[in-house]
Amino acid sequence: MSPINPLPFRIKVPGHDTIGAEGVVSISIKLEGLLHLNEKELLLEWTATRTVESVSLEGVRDEVDQSPVGSCEIPLSDILEASVRGGWWAPRLELRARSLEAFEDIPTAENGIAKLRIRRSDRQHAKGLCAGINDPPPLLESP
To answer: What domains are there in the chain, each with its CATH number?
Structure first.
C-alpha cells in the first residue's frame, strides 16, 4: 500500500450553557485531528480546545484551554466497515467496529461506531481511505 495522506477530521463534542445567580456560563469544545492509514492499522490523533465564556456582574471572562495530543491505534482487523456518510452539509467518515471495545479511546464513539466529520473538499480522499480500510491489500509473507 502506498502512503496515503492523513485525513483531517473534527469530532462534534456537545457543549453546555448554564444560567444562574452567578451569571451565564457557556462551555464549548472543539476537537480536531488527523486520521492516518497504514498497512495494519488506523492511527487517530487529536487535540481539544475548551472555551469557557462567562458573563456576570463582575464582567465578561474568556478562558481557552488546549489539551495535550490524544491518540489511539486501531488494527484494521477490528474495523467492520468504513463509509462516507452525510450529504453536502455534514459529510462524515463513519467507522463501524467488530467490538464495542475497539473505539473506547475515541471521544464520543458509542455502540461501536465512531463518526468523524470531514470537510466537503475531503470527500474523495475519505472515500479512498474507506476503500483501503474495507479492502486492505494482503500482507506479503517474508520467505
So the answer is: 7-134 (2.30.29)
